[in-house]
Amino acid sequence: MLGILFVIGFVGNLIGTLAGGGGLITLPTMLLLGMPVHSAIGANKVANTVSTLSNFFSVFKRKEASWNEVVPILALCFIGGLLGGGIASLFTEQTLTVIAICLLLFALCLSFLGKTDFGQELELRLKKRTAGLLVGVGIYDGLFGPGSGTLLLYIYAHEKLAYMKAVVLGRVGIFATCFGAAIMYVLNGQILWAETFSLMIGSIIGSQIGIALARKVSALLAKYLLRVITVVLIIQLVVELF
User: Fold this and answer.
1) Which residue ranges run through the membrane (predicted)?
2) Could you tell me if 185 and 62 are in contact, meaning their C-beta atoms sit under 8 angstroms apart?
3) Could you give the C-alpha distances from 60 to 48, 54, 56, 99, 241, in angstroms and in order?
4) How far apart are CA 78 and CA 66, in angstroms?
5) For the chain, what percentages of helix, strand and coil (3-state, to nearest 5) are there?
6) Containing H/E element for 84?
7) SS3 161
8) Whole-angstrom Cα distance, residue 112 to residue 80?
C-alpha cells in the first residue's frame, strides 16, 4: 500500500503541477485502498503542503516570482484553506462533488469562449474580484480538493498571465490552501502518518519534475492540456456522483 501511495503521489503531482487535477488520481486511489475519506483528504493536504513548499526553492532561485506577488496570494489562500478545513465535516462528499462539477463546467465554458486563455503578462495585478476568487478556491480546496489547482490556473489565465507564471502562482496558492487545511486535519486527528509520508515523498519528486517540464510547455499546449484535464475531472466526478 505504501508503495502505491508513493507512485500516485508522484504521478498526481506531476500532472497537478502542469494543469491541476492531481487529486483525480490521488484521492480516488486512496479511497479504493480503504482509507477513510477525511484521512485521505488530510493526507493530500499534508503531502501537497510539503511538495509545493519544495517548489519555492526552484521558483525563487530563478526569480520567477516576487514576494510582492506571493504574500497576498499566500494570505488569501491560507485563510480560505483554513476555513474550508474547519467546516469540512459539515458537508457530505456528494454535496462537494456537485459543487466541484459546477465550478469546473463554468471554468471550461469560459475557456472555450476565449476568456481564460493564457497571455503574456509576467506580473499579477491583484484585483478585488481575483482576491475573492482565491479565497473561494481556498475554501473549496480545504473542503474537498480535486480540481482546485485547475481552477487556480483558470483564474490566472483570465488575468492573461503567461502559462509559466500561472503555474508558479498556482503552486503558491495550493501551498497556502493545503497548509491551512492541513492544520485543521492534523488538529482533528484525521491523519494516518505512515500513508501520508509515503504520499508526500512521491509528491515532492513529482512536483519538482512537473515544474521543470512547465518551463518547456507553450501557452497553446497548456490551454489544451488544461481543457483535457478539466474534462477528465468532470467525467470522474460525475461517475463518482452517480
Assistant:
1) 5-27, 70-91, 96-113, 133-156, 168-187, 193-214, 221-239
2) no
3) 18, 11, 6, 34, 40
4) 18
5) 80, 0, 20
6) helix 67-87
7) strand
8) 28
Query: Which whole-number Å values give the CA distances from 37 to 27, 44, 89, in the listed order?
Result: 8, 11, 11
Rounded CA gap, 231 and 234, in Å?
5
CA distance 28 to 35: 10
Cell readout for 235 is: 467525467
- pLDDT tens string 189-220: 888 899 999 999 999 999 999 999 988 888 77
123 vs 22: CA distance, rounded Å: 26
Is it the case that residue 51 has pLDDT exceeding 80?
yes
Which among 11, 78, 92, 69 has a CA at the least distance from the CA of 45?
A: 78
Asked whether the beta carbons of 205 and 10 are under 8 A apart, the reply is yes
Instruction: Work out the number of other CB atoms within 10 angstroms of the CB of residue 39.
Output: 18
Q: Are the beta carbons of 28 and 45 closer than 8 angstroms?
A: no
